[in-house]
Amino acid sequence: MSLLAKRSGDAISDNAKKRLSALRSYPTLDSWRNPLTRGIARHFAHESWLKALQEIDFEYRLSDLEISEVPCLHYETRSTRPDHDLILYVHGGAFVAGSPRVNASMILPTCELSGIEAIGVDYSLLPEAHFPVVLDQVDTVYRALIAKNENRRIFLFGDSAGGAVILSNLMRWRRENLKLPAGAVFISPVLDGAGSSDTHITVEGFDPLIKSQGGRGIRQLFEYYAPGMDLKDPRVSPIYGDFEGLPPLLVHAGTREVCLGDAARLSENARRRGVRVSLRVFDGMFHLFHMHWSLIESKQAHEDIAAFLTDLS
Asked: Which of 16, 161, 226, 305 could form a disulfide with 12 if both were Cys (CB 3.0 to 4.6 A apart)?
């Protein structure tokens, strides 16, 4: 991490400053492409995310299940109710890493605070699953859930690259006149495979986790995810899609994210098309800071998400 990224303002908590200073950049895309180093890169990424799970200080249960032959994970906490609403969670990890279990610290606090249980899709990762496999797996699970839960509200929750997956599918379901979720939550969303957001330049060197290279890193990732596709195709980069008719959206990001511009553009594009949308930007926070439950900033963020979901219920 650069010295610039280690500097921080006085407004963030002391614990957040310590966490910021300890963060290390994600592995390069070359590490993920190379079969000799992919396993090592995935191990270290997962080790970091699983360590964050140890910060959870309330009771929870994780249960494996299959929905229409797609592997999933069921999240329950001491406050969730099986007869209540349901969250469909799509984890991040740049399409190359992560799982509903590895990334559980992202969704569990929202389940606990809102009382809403969740289902996470254990979708296939690269290099085995290029576009549109992930979209189709999430689509399959969602269709099964709405068919089986006619009287329950379903919310979407996606972080990082998971944000692109849920936004692309939202637009797909609207086109096909499918029943839409009651709302959607986007955490640190990565939505533009062309890497066009201005913050790829302005925040470069201040993001402790992602080395953007002016957007080149994101372009290379999405070329790996969707080889041969136009990176501005809305199915790949849904920031370029039509937002009209989408359900209420909540968008969270931190000021230390090179993809902050994606969150801002998501909010503005939705607002211009008449969608109810709220954008929350957290000073000094980094990509996926919501996973670190011990931080006061993470607790405040999850409280905001829970309030959003509760208000829609």
From this structure: 16
pLDDT per residue over 93-114, tens digit each?
Answer: 999 999 999 999 999 999 999 9
User: CA–CA separation, 143 vs 203, rounded Å?
Assistant: 38
Whether residue 203 is predicted with pLDDT greater than 70 in this model: the reply is yes
- The count of other CB atoms within 10 Å of the CB of residue 283 is 13
Q: What is the pLDDT of residue 1?
A: 56
**CA triple 278-274-156, angle to 5 deg:** 50
CATH number at residue 290: 3.40.50.1820
Q: Which residues, listed in sequence order, are joined to residue 66 by a DSSP beta bridge?
A: 71
Which pair of tokens denotes residue 207? 């993001």
Show the tokens assigned to 114.
């809102």
Which positions ≥6 away from 186 have C-beta within 8 Å? 158, 159, 163, 166, 167, 249, 250, 251, 252, 263, 266
Q: Is 194 exposed, middle or buried (0-12, 13-18, 19+ CB in 10 A)?
A: middle
The rounded mean pLDDT for the chain is: 96
Average pLDDT over residues 257-261: 97
The range of the structural domain enclosing residue 186 comes to 3-312
CB 111 within 8 A of CB 75: yes
18-33 pLDDT per residue, tens: 999 999 999 889 999 9
Enumerate long-range contacts of 65-70, CB under 8 Å, 24 or more apart: 65/119, 67/119, 67/140, 67/141, 67/144, 67/145, 68/140, 68/141, 68/143, 68/144, 69/140, 70/121, 70/122, 70/123, 70/137, 70/140, 70/141
For residue 7, the SS3 value is: coil
- β-strand partners of 89: 120, 157
Residue 114: other Cβ atoms inside 10 A: 25
Question: Count of alpha carbons within 13 Å of 286, Cβ hemisphere only?
Answer: 27
Structure tokens at 120: 């996470």
Q: Which helix (H) or strand (E) holds 158?
A: strand 154-159
